[in-house]
Structure formats: C-alpha cells, structure tokens
Amino acid sequence: MPEHVNSANSHSDLAKSVVRSSTPLNQRPVSPYTLNPIVEEDGFSWPSFGTRKRAEDTPEEHQGRIDRISKAVKTILEEIGEDVEREGLLDTPQRYAKAMLYFTTGYQTNIMDDVIKNAVFEEDHNEMVIVRDIEIYSLCEHHLVPFFGKVHIGYIPNKKVIGLSKLARLAEMYARRLQVQERLSKQIAMALQDILKPMGVAVVIEATHMCMVSRGIQKTGSSTVTSSMLGCFRAHRTREEFLTLLNRGR
C-alpha cells in the first residue's frame, strides 16, 4: 500500500479517536456512590452542594430562598407569554417556590436524626422482611416534572432489624430530591445496607414518568421498573424468592 495512503488512514484513525474520546461513553461518570460515604459523620446522606446550609437556614434565610425562586418563576411565566399580573397568576411564583422547596426536602433531611432515629433493634431473626407498595413522588432531574409509583423493599437481617415505618421514610427522603429512578433504587438499597449491615437488601421501584407520558414520545400507560440487589439477593434463589413473595396476592 502506498505510503501516502497509510498516512491518510493514520490521520483518519487519529481524528476518530479524538472524537470518540470526547463522547459520554468514554468519560468516567461522577458518581455519589464512589466519591462520598453513604452516611457522613454528621448524619447527612450524599448531600449536594449547599444542602447543609439549607438545612441550617434561619426563617429569614428560608424566606430569601422563596423570594429568589419566585423571581425566577416570574421570569419564566413572562417568557412563555403569560400575563403575570392577571388574577390567577399573581401568587403563583410564591406558591411554586414553596412547593419546590417541599418537593426537595430530601436534600436537607438528616438520615440518622430525622429518619432512622433510634429505630434499629437487636433481634435474632434471619428471614426475609419485605415492605411493599410504598408510594413515592419525585421529580425527574432532566425535565423537572414528576415521576411517581411504588417502592418495594426487602432485606434479610443479620441480628439487627429496623422499624418498618423507617423503610417508607427512607424511600421518601431520597425521593424528595431531583432524581433518576435508577439512582433512587440504588440509594435506598445502599443506605439500608450501610445502616443495618444485613445479609442482603433488595429494592424494586415501579414508576410512571410524566416526561415520557406528557411530552416527547407520549406513551401513556407505560411504566419503568428498576431494581437494586445487594448481598445475598444477588444469588438467583434469593432473588427469585423475593420476587415471588412480592407478586403473591396480586
């Protein structure tokens, strides 16, 4: 093969490699699972930038957040062509600001002080515990629209059990953040694994995403199922037992 052809091919391959190296598939993801502990020393779990400050807000600082969000929402309403002075929208920016802060309370929730508290108990029990059909409501971080559904949590204790209501509170805490369903499944499972040190944890989430139902492909009736299996639940037999018990009586 002529030398100039080899040279051209090598330049072409180099150009392709440069293009490929900049694609998302070739970039190491920044993951909260690898960069930070599951539960930090002060009791917060994977806090985002600024969430500790938000948790410590005075009433005046909290009102300042509402005012700044309201101002931004008013701009959005103006930009979509609405009359922000009409009766129906006069208080909408303030309402939205308060609602958004409520929808994202999971950021400022202390997992140990506000969720788990003193509800971990010594118990000689090593059979599967399942709480299913825990309703959750969250916000998709890509479009800031809701997704909602049910969480099913199972674990096999290793001399420690947790109050059953705390499983629902754990799911609620992580759901009250900007989320993707895959991350939500994993965060619930990993937090429970870290707190109880059980033999295994299983989390399954079934949810409907409004970003898929009301925009884009607009496929009503569709649902998304994600799971996170840790410890002994990675074994086929244990996983099958969990899924069988989950679907019994439906």
Automatic annotation (TrEMBL):
Q: Where is this region: Disordered?
A: 1-34
Q: Which UniProt keywords apply?
A: Allosteric enzyme, Folate biosynthesis, GTP-binding, Hydrolase, Nucleotide-binding
Enzyme class comes to hydrolase
- Record-level Gene Ontology MF annotations: GTP binding; GTP cyclohydrolase I activity; zinc ion binding
The pathway it acts in is:
Cofactor biosynthesis; 7,8-dihydroneopterin triphosphate biosynthesis; 7,8-dihydroneopterin triphosphate from GTP: step 1/1
Polar residues bias: start-end ranges: 1-12, 19-29
Tell me its family: Belongs to the GTP cyclohydrolase I family.
Question: What biological function has been recorded for the protein in this entry?
Answer: GTP cyclohydrolase 1 is the first enzyme in the biosynthetic pathway leading to folic acid.
User: What protein name does the entry list?
Assistant: GTP cyclohydrolase 1
